[in-house]
Amino acid sequence: MRKLQVLLLTAVAVLVLLAVPALAAVEYSTKGPNADEIYFIIITEDEARLRALQLGEIHIYPGLTTPETIDTIYADLNMDITFDLGFHMFYTALNMRKKPLDDKVVRQALAHVVARDRIINTLFAGYMLPLESFVPQSSPFHHDDVKHYEYSPRKAAAMLDAAGYTMGPGGIRIDPATNKPMEEIEFLTPTFEIAPSSAQIGQLICDEARAIGIPAKHVPLDFNIMLDRLDIFDFDAYCLAWGLDRDPTFLYHFFHSSMDVKSGNNTPGIRDPELDQLLDTLYYAATYDEAMEASKEAQEMLSDLLPYITLYSRPYIDAFRTDKVKGYVPMLGYGAANYSNNWTTLNIAPVTDQPIRWLLPEDVKTLNPTVANSAYDWEILGRTTDSLMAVDPETMEDIPWVATGWEIETWKPNRAELDPECFANVDDEATKITFHLRDDVKFNDGMPFTAKDVKFSIDYYIKHKLQEQYQYLVDVVKVETPDDYTVVVYMSTLSYWHLGNLNRYWLPEHIWKNVEDPEHFQPWLEPHPTVEGLTQLVGIGPFMLESFEPGQYIHMVRNPYYWAAQ
User: Fold this and answer.
1) pLDDT > 90? residue 22
2) Statement to judge: residues 236 and 132 lie in one domain
3) Upper half-sphere CA count for residue 59 (Cβ side, 13 Å)
4) How many whole angstroms from its chain centre is CA 293?
5) Is the pLDDT of residue 563 over 70?
6) Global pTM?
7) Domains contained in the chain, number
């Protein structure tokens, strides 16, 4: 076994068995940013990415997955590779609205022909962690005592036989509900050029499905075209990955029936009352222990219903040219080069006079923060904003950031005053959170960031039901601003998770108050109404957009008004 692989697997074993956060490997500062500018270079082909790193055309290569690429970089003395268990899930989603995938037997049969271990060993040389549960191993909420589907075409065929899916002409099974050949299942993946491993996995699953009589066709697509189809549920099955967060509330957003809406994250269209009840218990848990128990039960139920077939969790393996950059901060769950790790964003610095050149593996779809749902979009947008609280890279606990502190209390909602169409859930005692904001935070156009912007953003997301943000705010009853730096948010329910749900992208009221059609607004293309040279993509984060050449690069520069500057 190769040396790096031994190191990686040893690290995995230690972190999983001990279940403790990984400590930051380098010193980091809460001030910054240390870089004046960053070029995000868009390179969509795997071989071209490695070549660009070797030639110094890029300095940071995030999210390594290809074993040959990892080994090549590891052997280069000018490169450093960081490794962190990730809040990550690679999965196949199955559209339960369509035949034959509306039948649990068919979904479970497909799970039995997913050669998970072979995929990991063949495509990734063992670098990935096999995952059959619905929460990755990096999370304390990971639950492994779920229904397992070992690779067994024989079991898959027997399940189909027993359910009446008899083999018909041409090796295609007959659907007992229609007495006709099963409808062909299209498996969507990104193209081989964009994501070779994802495309190969899609092809392998289709080959195995056809071998047991399930007609399956692999359809590779341009990544953004694929996302457009998923937004309107125009698919049978697809392979993609999620970059997740610490909290298991994503189970609610992925699988609760209320999230089965246009642009919602419940793409499989699962609607199960018993599962909804469990997910409600998880989402509205009053305590950590209650959330833990509900999370376990939900994972067990999901492993039976199978809206997803989970395959693996990816450790975040990021490469840095040490002769070009310094100051990157490894972080459990997020890796060293992910936008969710704001410590690297603040601390990364060039070693030479050359600006930092950071790989963006795919072009962005949109830089509109109210509708963006791609990780590549957020690699840019995530650096134009700041959160009320940050995650300590050593303890993984919430710490004050744009908010200097907060108090969590309860209040009694008046059910008679709440619109039942807006507030399906109302508790006798609900959560009330008061945030105290810094008074020195400014947007990158120089305008002050105040409590009014927080209130405006929450009200705006709710008014327009902008799903990417609104799904976290459905329980907000009202927002009050007693003064310019105090925000009081009243929820209709009691939940352990409401604090984290309020960590949103804050819109500048002076820009967005005039935007009547937010879904089609392109702020990065619209000139700023008062500041020459700026666009209307205005944020409070450490960087701001300078220029964007689609398919080539995105140039970001330091926010001159950034509150945490050195």
Assistant:
1) no
2) yes
3) 20
4) 24
5) yes
6) 0.84
7) 3
